[in-house]
Amino acid sequence: MSKESKILLVEDEKHLAKGLSYNLEKEGYQVTVAEDGLAALDCLREDNFDMMILDLMLPKLGGMEVIKKVRETNIRFPVLMLTAKTTDEDRTLGLDAGADDYLAKPFHLPELLLRVKGILRRKDWYEEPVRKLEYYEFGNMWVNFNTGKAKGCEGEFYLTSKEVLVMNLLIANRGKVVSREELLEKVWGYSPNTETRTVDNFISRLRKYFEKKPQNPRYIVTVREKGYQFNEASTKN
Ligand code: CA
Question: Separation of 57 CA from ligand 1 center, angstroms?
């Protein structure tokens, strides 16, 4: 983060928006506030941002719809979703819609700042390996790391930006173990020792897409007490 990162903050609660932008600016970020979903899309069209902090419940166009719109043209744009909803189901919905990270209200300011920092650090990391590895084929499946499009056991679909990152890191290191800590740090931007279960949940989802027998995986294997490893496609069946 050599330059000043530009953040789009989409939040309709004026007090919260004001407090957040004040604190983000104090950290050295440039902040633009949009008060509803349509205004957010206008801002994104008019300017380049490094990431967006997006409230889920918004007037005019909800946060989920905003993400879907953004993902139609840019699968990589980092989005941190804020929401009052805290159930696992809502969390999964948000992540499926393409949010990179998720923070439930009420949250502590240091936690938000940590997430923002992590997302921006991950963004820097992201651009490199994706350029090196654009496409990978295994079995009769494939992943296009540029578009996020993939072919799994059940046909073609789109991976979320985070799923693309996890696959990218595993496949770039194929044949080698990638620890949960490394995945967490490089994909989520968290410091290790927190929430390694998040990684396990993503691996389970990826196995459902790419493994005929998710319980007995062939490509995305668990290396006990070490992490995960992507096994190259073998010529034999
Ligand atoms: Ca709201």
Answer: 4
